[in-house]
Amino acid sequence: DSGVTQTPKHLITATGQRVTLRCSPRSGDLSVYWYQQSLDQGLQFLIHYYNGEERAKGNILERFSAQQFPDLHSELNLSSLELGDSALYFCASSPTGTGNYGYTFGSGTRLTVV
Amino acid sequence: DQQVKQNSPSLSVQEGRISILNCDYTNSMFDYFLWYKKYPAEGPTFLISISSIKDKNEDGRFTVFLNKSAKHLSLHIVPSQPGDSAVYFCAARTNQAGTALIFGKGTTLSVSS
Questions:
Q1: Angle of CA points B29, B94, B41, to nearest 5°
Q2: pLDDT tens-digit map of B89-111
Q3: What angle do CA B87, B90, B91 make, to 5 degrees?
Q4: Under the phi-then-psi rule, with left for phi > 0, alpha for psi from -120 to 50, and beta for the rest, what region is A27?
Q5: Ranges of chain B whose pLDDT falls below 50
Q6: How far apart, in whole angstroms, are the C-alpha atoms of residue B22 and residue A3?
Q7: Is the CA virtual torsion A95, A98, A100, A106 positive or negative?
Q8: Taking a contact as any Cβ pair under 8 Å apart, which residues of chain A between 24 and 83 contact chain B?
Q9: Neighbouring-strand partners of residue B58
Q10: Which of A40, A41, A106 sits opposite B43 (nearest CB)?
Q11: How far is CA B35 from CA B22, B63, B75, in A?
Q12: Cβ distance B72 to B42 under 8 Å?
């Protein structure tokens, strides 16, 4: 157990729908990062939050959004889902905003859009 | 534009031999490099890292080498064990605010006994 909790582990939904993925960071970590891993792709950075504030955006679609709450858990919202959004979505946390100590990853949420 | 490239999707090695996983990068601003290991149905786990001011870092059976002039790093596993079979990701970061770890696509290592 890495200490980073992601729910749900699996999600199957239809095209056009909206889903919310949840992440609880490791105790004491202030940063949350979201990554997407599609078939044959590496981990694509989506977005980074530090202590409730957005710090960096990567290849995140406009249909996707995220937030980090006062208790530091984070949610990734995916809307108007398309077949191509099917992927593993990982959340990672780190103590600081710079990731100097590397990231601790959760076990991921597998999203299947049908 | 891939800033971190792992050109070998897979590698097969016999138990007890050396495994060498390679990674190339294009961004000269990267100052810290990491290797992560991922088993099926689990998230990536940190394995070993190296700062750009060093050219080698060892941790047990794992050694990472950095060649800044060639923008190349490699992970050596000696001796390889069947439990090392996993996907290995190379990652890099700059020291600039507003950036995050950039990952390669990964190399699947299979160690046979």
A1: 130
A2: 999 998 777 678 999 999 999 99
A3: 130
A4: beta
A5: none
A6: 30
A7: positive
A8: 33, 35, 40-45, 48, 55-56, 58
A9: B63
A10: A106
A11: 11, 10, 8
A12: no
Torsion angle, alpha carbons of B84, B36, A31, A110, to 10: -70
Query: Cα(first)–Cα(last) distance of chain B, in Å?
Result: 38
- Per DSSP, chain A holds a count of helices (H) and strands (E) of 0, 11
Q: What is the DSSP letter of B83?
A: G
Per DSSP, the three-state class of B46 is strand
Beta pairing, strands B107-112 & B10-14? parallel
Which residues lie across from B35 on neighbouring strands?
A: B48, B90
Nearest CA in chain A to B7: A42
B89 near A CB under 8 A: yes
| Tokens at A113, concatenated | 């859009």
Tell me: the pLDDT tens digits for A11-64? 999 999 999 999 999 999 999 999 999 987 789 999 999 999 999 999 899 999
C-beta neighbour count of B84 within 10 angstroms? 18
Using alpha carbons, select from B95, B98, B100 the residue that is nearest to residue B28.
Answer: B95
* Best CA proximity match to B35, nearest among B58, B11, B12: B58
Give yes or no for B48 touching A (CB within 8 A). Answer: no
Cβ separation of A42 and B93 shorter than 8 Å? Answer: no
Residue A17, chain B, CB below 8 Å: the answer is no
